[in-house]
Amino acid sequence: MTLDGLYAAMPVPLQNLACTWAGYRRARTRFTPHFHRRLREWQESGRSSRERLHGIQQERLFALASRARRHVPHYAKLALPEPRCEADPQRGIEAMLAAFPVLEKADYRVDPESFIAADIPPRRLLKGKTSGTTGTALPLWYTPEALAEEYAAVWRLRTSVGIGLFDPHFSFGGQLLVPMAQARPPYWRTNAWGRQTLFSLYHMTRANLPHYIDALHAIPAAYVQGYPSSLHLLGRAMLDAGRPLPAGKLRAIFTSSESLLAFQRETIEHAFAAPIFDRYGTSEFAVSMTACREGLLHVDMEFGIVEVEIEEENEHFVRGPLLVTGFANDATPFIRYRIGDVGTRAKRPCPCGRPGDVFLDVDGRIEDYVVTPDGRWIGRLDHIFKEQLDVAEAQIVQETPEAIEVRIVPRPSFDARAEAGLIKEIRSRVGDQIRIELVRLQEIPREPNGKFRAVKSAVGRQMGEEGNNR
Ligand SMILES: [Zn+2]
User: Fold this and answer.
1) 50-71 and 89-98 are packed helices; what angle lies between their axes, rounded to 10 degrees?
2) CA-based, 20 to 30 A from 416: which of 57, 105, 379, 392?
């Protein structure tokens, strides 16, 4: 990724103007009449009942299945959807879903264009990419309405915690905003129209972080949005410098795009002095979950259906790979799509009172799992680092079945005893058969899109792609 030459050559005030113009155009495509209509409807249905939500799901699923059958070549051979069941919408939904086989990424890869709905004029199609690891992303198509519905889900969450559409805020996304060669602050740009301060993720070195902290204290904002890894890096630096934000400055922190790891949450909430509301979504517009004050992830039921292929079950939860069916993406419908993420669904309703399905967590992709030589799949390894106060950042990389590389950014207090404790902690999860190589780094490299990955397992990915036969 490189910055456009013209933009890169502009002085900062003109770059701010360009960011403002881009922000204005972005808002025009997002905050459409469809967005406002859906937001109003969903604010109301989000306070209704589980039965009402199932009723909405059944209507939307029926419409989706009928359209897919008629207008989407991939689904053309499928039987017509089951009739709706007014008396018991949940049963109606189950019957309709049962008519669709599970959709694998491999099925989509064969012929993505066979998923395009023919009743949507080509000029209305926007082109995106499937989520997934770099190199395996596939093209997909969506409409402005899909985008509007995605933002309706986002803004239902935000408005529910008292944030308004035009409140000032900080943003830590993956955009390239600041030329790489720039060696002086500001490492942020301003979208004045959207009252947004956009920070560069690509200049967050130890030497530059104090400038970021100055800006966070000086610039007014009501909330911050961003990747958990970036907010964590900054939060760590704020706490180390004894400069957390004053309580009451921010009302909320919104994280998305990466798994919010256990060790990140505490640091971020402490440093930014506000509660985190995480969100789980994917670029297929096939699923959306938004967190509540209890820290659980509620399925945005009006947006789609999430099924769990149960691999583990006890009295409190079911856990397994997710099958998602999105109502928003009318251009390339994904029905019962195995998205590649594993989730844990609670069996009880959330204490916060919001109706519908609720997840304890969605903890990662198949490639977030380390596979041991004896064939065990170990997920949630980021939890190892939650208690490791002597480690600033950590990542586990598995290239072969025999070994894992544990990359750490040690803090000054990381000594032989801390190392022994860390190894013991890792052994307690991965067993004795796998080799552990500890590597010390100054910083942990981000993915090309600026994201941080806690676990990168080529072995997990390979086995996952060989048929999901876990
Ligand atoms: Zn809740």
Assistant:
1) 30
2) 379
- CB proximity list for 123: less than 8 A, separation 6 or greater: none
- Residue 376: strand, helix, or coil: coil
Range of the domain at 448: 369-465
Per-residue model confidence (pLDDT) at position 320 = 87
Cα 355 to averaged position of ligand 1 atoms, centre (Å) = 8
CA of 291 to the centre of ligand 1 (A): 7
Same-domain check for residues 200 and 172: yes
Which structure tokens are listed for 447? 């993915």
Give a yes or no: residue 470 inside a domain.
Answer: no
Tokens at 453, concatenated: 């990955």
Instruction: Using the 3D structure, point to which of 274, 289, 313 is the last residue of a domain.
Output: 274
* Cα–Cα distance, 260 to 263 (Å, whole number): 9
The enclosing domain of 265 has a CATH number of 3.40.50
Sheet holding 435-440, edge to edge: 435-440, 403-410, 391-400, 455-457
pLDDT of residue 1: 43
d(CA 460, CA 468): 10
Domain annotation covers residue 157: no
Q: What is the mean pLDDT of each run of 10 residues along the chain (470 residues)?
A: 76 95 92 97 97 97 94 90 88 93 89 95 90 63 95 98 97 85 93 96 87 98 93 92 97 90 87 97 93 96 96 88 94 93 92 96 72 73 77 90 93 92 88 92 81 80 49
What's the number of domains the chain is made of? 3
Q: Ligand 1 centre and the CA of 165: distance in Å?
A: 23
Return the sign of the alpha-carbon dihedral for residues 65, 70, 74, 76.
Answer: positive
> What pLDDT does 6 receive?
87
Q: How far is the CA of 308 from the centre of ligand 1 (A)?
A: 19
Contact 365, 341 (CB under 8 A): yes
Query: Exposure of 56 by Cβ count < 10 A (0-12 exposed, 13-18 middle, 19+ buried)?
Result: middle
Give the distance from CA 147 to its chain's centroid.
15
- CA nearest neighbour of 49 among 95, 89, 83: 89
Q: What is the CATH number of the domain that holds 439?
A: 3.30.300.30
Identify whether 357 is part of a domain.
yes
Listed residue (425, 432, 370) closest to 400, CA to CA: 370
pLDDT at residue 463 in the model: 62
Q: 307: closest CA among 299, 315, 297?
A: 299
